[in-house]
Amino acid sequence: MERVLAGYLAAVNLAAFLLMGADKRRARRGGWRVSEKTLFLFPALGGALGGLLGMKVFRHKTKHWYFWAGFWGLLLVQTGLGLVLRRL
Fold first, then answer.
1. How far apart are CA 52 and CA 67, in angstroms?
2. Among 10, 26, 74, 87, which residue has the least CB neighbours within 10 Å?
3. From CA 85, how far away is CA 88, in angstroms rounded?
4. Helix and strand tally (H, E) in the chain?
5. Nearest CA-CA partner of 23 in 62, 73, 72
6. Are 46 and 86 in contact (CB under 8 A)?
7. How deeply is 87 buried, as exposed, middle or buried, from its count of CB atoms within 10 A (0-12, 13-18, 19+)?
8. Which pTM was predicted?
9. What is the pLDDT of residues 27-64, one digit of tens each?
């Protein structure tokens, strides 16, 4: 079960990271953008760390306070949940 969860978390964090990069690339080229709902979806599903790393690496959405606050809040909740589940 732990391996399945680890694989899921790796995939959702990678997806969140790559979506930030894809949206930044599209923004530079004037292309069709990834919606903010989609950019929040993967971090909400467990990929908050990937979303934060994507913001940092691609320098994307860094001036939008609700992305920083939202992703950090999700990361804190996810970390707390992980610690609680680890003790069970």
1. 9
2. 87
3. 5
4. 4, 0
5. 62
6. no
7. exposed
8. 0.92
9. 999 999 999 999 999 999 999 999 999 999 999 999 99
